[in-house]
Amino acid sequence: MEAPTTIVQIILYSTHMASPKYFGVTLVLSLSYGATLVMRSEDDLWALSTASNLTCTHNALSLLDEPNQYPQLKVVAVAGEVCPVALKDLWAPRVKLFNLYGPSECAIMTHGSRLSLTESIAIGSVLPKVHCYMLDDNHRQVPSGIL
Predict the structure, then answer these.
(1) Backbone conformation region of residue 36, classed left if phi is above 0, alpha if psi is from -120 to 50, else beta
(2) pTM higher than 0.85, yes or no?
């Protein structure tokens, strides 16, 4: 992250992504780099015009018509649902686009990956300091890379 950076948090406060644990990560990240953190407000579009980093659902990102209208936007992280291929293809050439995943019952992000035009969309790799075990239909652990 480079200064000056403005991170816009437009996730609805009622969702798990706005939980204290996730918000705490966003807050610490912002403060650690001297960034400005803009919280959801009535004037979200104004905030987006100044943002360099954006975390949102793919539905919110799809409301932004054209990536070139946001030239200062450098990093976009989508989470909450699977990112549609068309949205990835629209945004990946213009910004560093990340797909984040986490089980909603845990209110955390556990996996992430940078999306590119040439690769399919996946939940990504386990994030640092996260332990993940994949189980088969019989609740037995499967080797890494199988699923």
Answers:
(1) beta
(2) no
- Residue 86 · residue 108 · CB < 8 Å: no
* CATH number for the domain that contains residue 73: 3.40.50.980
Tell me the CA distances in angstroms from 57 to 80, 81, 145, one per residue in order. Answer: 6, 7, 26
Within-domain flag for 116: yes
Virtual CA dihedral for 18, 26, 96, 40, nearest 10 degrees?
A: 50
Structural domains counted in the chain: 1
DSSP 8-state code for residue 83: P
pLDDT digits (tens, 9 = 90+) for 12-31: 544 545 554 555 556 656 66
Coil, helix or strand for 53?
strand
What residues contact residue 20 under an 8 Å CB cut-off, 6+ apart? none
Q: In the structure, how many helices (H) and strands (E) does the chain have?
A: 4, 7
